[in-house]
């Protein structure tokens, strides 16, 4: 099997074709504003009169070779405190109604009219920020990791304070934006960043970008960007400091026995301190997360627990530095494990108070990023919960053009707290050391991930590691990939998210896309996905093979016809009538045909 995988990967890599790069573009120039710009959606300041417009947006959907139907013009300026952006979004015909599926902050979706700005402040084409506004002035912002390769690579849970205003006119709408420099991390004295703009217009069913992006890539991809030149070096990033204290009082009453609990006051707060231009220190004492957005309610009918993303602001700065180790199925670190523990009386997971925490993250220079965290939770004797101390350290180094290597160390210690002291409970530790390599080729055709992680616990010496190799090739028409994972039986990352251990998995994937010259169909084509899981003792335990055919219209509507063949090994007998049980044993493979409309 290992020889087969190696041969496949080497053969796979040999078919690479050099991607023709965009002709060098001078970029966009930003003049310094002499006076602060009033963010009102009316472009009457002098600075806007002194700067030329950048336009010539090109489609990335439905095609990537035509100029935009709905034209867009943008300008950029700055001063000592803000980056200013102005945009005029033209329409070929008079129009005052636009599509917005929600007026809630952090909207998303291809059906929402709007303009977004992708900013890469360190010119690494890997990490950045997104700021977006729709015609009704609704904002959204996100942090981008892994080059924005996938839609999951930007985090809308990140929130910050910035300013924007939109005004609607007969044949166009205007956006004016002011982003505080203190919101961003950048090098002292920076003279240029990377930037791109993209617009979604539902009336003409088009996505357009200032920097051309091939139609097989996401518009959030930071590899496709141009230079933003400042007329003079940016001011030194000041010592950004913010403090958010809180005070709360709680009480309760049992109406059956009439017992009323006394008032219980609580105090705490968070602090964010900028250390240099690209480092940030977050501190918290007795934090209160009552204002955090609640998770979507989901009914879990699966065998494994559901993954919910982190939404607590304390954990979101440079979240990719900690969270992108591993894969979606093998995560060595999952910050939502901190502050949750098991009630020994009920066996259920319950909230466990965080006493304090510190988190340092950011860039050391152009090539190195670092993250470190220490958190302490409280004892809860009534529930049989001992306090835990969590220490996490991550170090990442940029290699080649856009790839990176990283090392992570995690330590969870069980501790008793008595009379203000911290007493370590011997033998109650859980530790992990991991190494990751993330591949991003210069032409964006090749991506991959390779890692090895190992956990350390008392009494567990063998089969405590996990390894993974994945390589994907993406062209305009062809996408093909192969991944292999080997998870040890005793691999146990208690601060991570790995719902299943003790298996090996191989998963090939391939699709081919046609782009017809059609008035209605944008793209169509077949696809194949497969995954097989097995163990040394049981053999194959899970199989899923899927053939599908996707048809996407210019209106973003999709039709998918898929045929699945699935097998699941039953680890325990089901209580079924004899007839049904015998039928199940005779037909272990289940086939389904699904027609999905979106």
From TrEMBL:
Transmembrane segments: none annotated. Residues 242-523 form the DUF5916 domain. One of its GO terms (molecular function) is carbohydrate binding. SUPFAM superfamilies: CBD9-like. InterPro entries: Carb-bd_dom_fam9 (IPR010502), DUF5916 (IPR045670). It comes from the Bacteria. GO terms for biological process: carbohydrate catabolic process. Residues 39-201 form the Carbohydrate-binding domain. This is Uncharacterized protein. The lineage of its organism: Bacteria, Pseudomonadati, Bacteroidota, Cytophagia, Cytophagales.
């Amino acid at each position: 099997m290992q020889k087969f995988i190696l041969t496949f990967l080497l053969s796979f890599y040999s078919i690479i074709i050099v991607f023709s790069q965009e002709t060098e573009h001078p970029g966009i120039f930003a003049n310094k504003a002499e006076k602060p710009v009033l963010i009102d959606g009316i472009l009457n300041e002098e600075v806007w009169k002194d700067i030329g417009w950048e336009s010539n947006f090109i489609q990335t959907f439905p095609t990537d070779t035509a100029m935009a139907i709905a034209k867009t013009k943008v300008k950029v300026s700055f001063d000592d405190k803000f980056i200013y952006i102005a945009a005029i979004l033209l329409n070929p015909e008079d129009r005052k109604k636009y599509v917005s599926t929600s007026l809630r902050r952090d909207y998303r979706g291809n059906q929402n009219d709007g303009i977004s700005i992708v900013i890469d402040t360190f010119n690494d084409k890997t990490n950045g920020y997104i700021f977006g506004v729709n015609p009704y002035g609704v904002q959204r912002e996100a942090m981008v990791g892994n080059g924005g390769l996938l839609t999951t690579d930007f985090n809308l849970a990140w929130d910050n304070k910035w300013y924007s205003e939109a005004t609607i006119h007969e044949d166009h709408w205007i956006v004016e934006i002011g982003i505080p420099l203190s919101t961003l991390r950048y090098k002292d004295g920076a003279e240029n960043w990377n930037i791109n703009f993209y617009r979604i217009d539902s009336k003409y069913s088009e996505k357009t970008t200032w920097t051309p992006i091939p139609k097989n890539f996401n518009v959030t991809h930071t590899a496709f960007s141009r230079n933003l030149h400042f007329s003079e070096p940016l001011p030194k990033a000041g010592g950004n400091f913010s403090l958010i204290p809180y005070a709360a009082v709680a009480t309760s009453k049992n109406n059956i026995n009439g017992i009323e609990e006394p008032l219980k006051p609580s105090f705490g707060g968070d602090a964010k301190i900028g250390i240099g231009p690209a480092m940030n220190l977050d501190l918290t004492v007795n934090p209160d997360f009552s204002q955090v957005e609640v998770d979507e309610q989901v009914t879990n009918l699966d065998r494994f627990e559901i993954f919910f993303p982190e939404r607590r602001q304390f954990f979101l700065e440079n979240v990719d530095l900690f969270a992108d180790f591993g894969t979606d199925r093998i995560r060595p670190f999952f910050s939502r494990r901190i502050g949750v523990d098991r009630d020994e009386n009920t066996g259920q997971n319950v909230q466990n108070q965080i006493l304090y925490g510190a988190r340092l993250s950011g860039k050391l220079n152009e090539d190195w990023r670092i993250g470190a965290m220490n958190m302490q939770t409280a004892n809860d004797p009534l529930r049989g919960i001992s306090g835990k101390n969590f220490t996490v350290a991550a170090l990442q180094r940029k290699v080649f053009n856009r790839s990176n290597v990283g090392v992570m160390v995690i330590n969870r210690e069980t501790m008793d707290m008595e009379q203000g002291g911290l007493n370590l409970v011997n033998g109650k530790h859980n530790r992990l050391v991991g190494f990751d390599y993330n591949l991003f080729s210069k032409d964006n055709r090749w991506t991959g991930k390779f890692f090895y992680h190992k956990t350390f616990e008392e009494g567990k010496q063998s089969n405590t590691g996990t390894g993974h190799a994945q390589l994907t090739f993406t062209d305009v028409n062809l996408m093909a990939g192969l991944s292999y994972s080997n998870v040890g039986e005793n691999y146990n990352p208690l601060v991570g998210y790995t719902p299943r251990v003790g298996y090996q998995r191989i998963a090939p994937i391939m699709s081919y896309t046609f782009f017809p010259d059609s008035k209605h169909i944008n793209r169509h084509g077949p696809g194949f996905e497969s995954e097989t899981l097995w163990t040394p003792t049981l053999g194959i335990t899970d199989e899923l093979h899927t053939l599908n055919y996707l048809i996407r219209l210019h209106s973003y509507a999709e039709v998918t016809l898929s045929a699945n063949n699935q097998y699941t090994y039953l680890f325990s007998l089901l209580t079924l009538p004899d007839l049904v049980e015998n039928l199940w044993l005779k037909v272990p493979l289940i086939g389904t045909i699904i027609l999905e409309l979106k």
